[in-house]
Amino acid sequence: MEAMEGEGRSEMEYTEIETTAECLDSSVIFHVVTDILGFVLFMHQQIPSILQDISLEFDGLQTEYKELEIVLAQAEVKASLRRQHAGRMKEVKQGIKRLEKVMKTVSGLRTALQLMISEIPDIQRVMLVLGTSPIRPQHVYEMCFSHGKIISIGAGDFAKSKAAEGLSRKAIRTLISKGAGSDSHAGPTKLFLLVKAPTSFNMPLHFLPKRDFRYSKKIVPFRLRFKCKAQFKETEGQIFVAQTADSISSKDCTPNDLIWFQCRHVVKGLVTKTSPTED
Amino acid sequence: MASRTATKDIITLRGSSAIVSEFFGYAANSILYNRGVYPEETFAKVKKYGLPMLLTQDEGVKTFIANLTAQLSKWLESGKLQRVVLVIMSKATNEVLERWNFSIETDNEVLEKGVAREKSDKEIMREIQAIMRQIASSITYLPCLDEPCVFDVLAYTDKDVSVPFTWIESDPKLIDNPQMVKLHSFNTKIHKVDTLVSYKNDEWDEQ
């Protein structure tokens, strides 16, 4: 979709998604972002099946490889069986190699996002950019989180709750209804994750600051705003934040203090031998 | 710069009917697999629409779907088919849990005058691919079906259509207070197929 010349990006362009939950805790935000990420990768033909299935396939291949190693290490295996197992081992190894890179990157990205959310529990804007570079995207998905009570969960506690599951599903349904993925074309590209955070945020192993980041105005993004039931009230709200020395709050920052940070883990689409023609 | 205009292919009513009825067959299989109506191990992978598609190996279901698509093709050629709905119901209670609704609009001029249309096969396949991806990812946006389910297929036709004895009149098998998601469409220029899934709201699912 291309924007008309001169068309700005106003607040009106967000699709609101309301959750009945009292608040958007860190775990909910994490799972919503990663589930949408998986959806975007699959619908835009960057992975051959949904992320959950690829993950299962990858785990299955790794397990099978270890089992074959054990079998082949046994001296009493018949020669014919040994050849069979060796052949299968080669196939499994190729399968692992094919999926390893994307699985490793997704895992790194998930870790990076968890670390960031742990440090900035009131994260407000996240962006997924699909294209050869973030400034020249093919597709952009923006997520805005309007927090009620800000609740930082315990470190490492990103278990997926029913609430997170429900909200992810709602978000993906919204994207589908808006036509997400309908104009996708085959061919591997890259997926970038960007998060808006205070300038003081510092996590160089996982995120790089991108001051004055802007992407091409020709692209009309999909924009979702997540709102929880209890909106935060300035005068009487309470903020619950884990008492760590490193916690940073976006609320204390002016808009100028917030900049985009790009995740270093960039997901590269898998080359698939799909074609739009019948086989 | 190379032109991006795809070569257009001639599409006849018969050809379009074949494309659409074949699509129903694969879509039905994909829904049954992805919604867990039948166990995973009863499906085999094949390549279709440039995608890995799952086809049931259960002889009963296979025959049912084969007969279904053959009949749908006939109705499509006669221009009498308005809609096909795949209904998923609870095995225990018969309560309707999901309805996969495929609405069909047929070009009347093609029906009346027997003209052909032009559209790139690649473009049609690309549109079908998008729908198949949406079906394949349904676990990410529809409530889980946590109980054993059965399925049925409803065909909405014109009243004057000839109906084989293997088909019986039915109630619409609607869902009380359903939620709906509109999926992608595809268009052969003779038949336009819109897809919509309606489902019973899960208590955990956000409305």
Automatic annotation (TrEMBL), chain A:
Keyword presence, Coiled coil: yes
Tagged with keyword Transmembrane helix: no
One cellular-component annotation, GO: nucleus
InterPro entries, per the entry: MAD1/Cdc20-bound-Mad2-bd, MAD2L1BP_domain_sf
Coiled-coil regions listed in the entry: 51-78
Alphabetized UniProt keyword annotations: Coiled coil
Single GO BP term: regulation of exit from mitosis
This protein's name: Melanoma inhibitory activity protein
Organism, scientific name: Actinidia chinensis var. chinensis
Taxonomic lineage from the root: Eukaryota, Viridiplantae, Streptophyta, Embryophyta, Tracheophyta
Automatic annotation (TrEMBL), chain B:
GO BP: cell division; mitotic spindle assembly checkpoint signaling
GO cellular component terms given for this protein: cytoplasm; kinetochore; nucleoplasm
Alphabetic keyword roster: Cell cycle, Cell division, Mitosis, Nucleus
Domain HORMA as annotated: residue spans: 14-197
Nucleus as UniProt keyword: yes
Compartment(s) where it occurs, according to its Swiss-Prot or TrEMBL record: Nucleus
PROSITE patterns from the UniProt entry: HORMA
Biological role: Required for the execution of the mitotic checkpoint which monitors the process of kinetochore-spindle attachment and delays the onset of anaphase when this process is not complete. It inhibits the activity of the anaphase promoting complex by sequestering CDC20 until all chromosomes are aligned at the metaphase plate.
PANTHER family: MITOTIC SPINDLE ASSEMBLY CHECKPOINT PROTEIN MAD2, MITOTIC SPINDLE ASSEMBLY CHECKPOINT PROTEIN MAD2A
Record family assignment: Belongs to the MAD2 family.
Identification of the protein by name: Mitotic spindle checkpoint protein MAD2
Native species: Actinidia chinensis var. chinensis
